[in-house]
Here is the input.
Amino acid sequence: MIKRPLWLAAAPIIFLLLWSGGFGVAKLGLQHAEPLTLLALRYTCVLVLLLPLALIIRPPLPKTKRAWADVAITGFLIQVVYFGLCYIAFKAGVSAGGVAIIVCLQPILVALAAPYTVKEATTRLGWIGLGLGLAGAAIAILSRSSLQAENPWGILLTFGALMGMTGGTLYEKRFGVSQHPITANLIQYATGALFTLPAAYLTEGMIVQWSPEFLLILGYLVIGNSILAISLLLAMIRAGEVARVSALFYLVPALSALFAWPLLGEAMPPLAWAGMALAGLGVALVSKKSRVSNKSGVTAPSDKLNETL
Here is the structure.
């Protein structure tokens, strides 16, 4: 068994903190710019930061047209479909609780599809963990706000966002190969900017209210969410079971609520802490090492490290 590098062992914690904090920070950012305008600006800033690094470091590029396309498709599904539709759903009037509950179905969808798309089976213990994680996430969300009647169009958009993240996760695991982080991010965020910039121009006023607060918000979204968190997510997907990585998303709603407490003044009720603990237990069960049968029928460790960045 290959020993995991230290950075990969710490990746889940770092990813969860960066990703979960981004929801509250993005909500603050939407007070300064419209959804697609904020996304387009975020992606453009990532490219501005990474292009000089790419010229200096000269990282290796994908070797085939198919490899280029695979990186771009993953970027499109996550950066354009997932983030874009989530932000538009908020604009359509869907509550944060409604979006979070729907997106929390992602680990279940990944676990259902993984045996057929990436040949990864989920154990009985894993299914119990997935169920507990979903229940804990729902408790944490419902304890903070009562869900009202939602905009049907917004709900449809949110389900589209769910399909985008699920599809991006499975596609990266099935077709993704190890790429230099700068190379992968450049291709994926160029894809995001290519779609969000015209969409923002056609549908929004593209007005940004600049201020020191907004610069801090944008810095977090660009560096914390767009560069560090996404790089860690893709690395974890390639290095471990896709269902186990997806189960981490069960902790996001509760942790997002925790970050929203100081950022937005949204109090964290006692029941939300119980939901967070239940979701944590579910993730622990899904992440528990097990042995599954590979396609040839030979039992192999399910957490074997195949590739790292």
In short: The chain has one domain: 6-289.
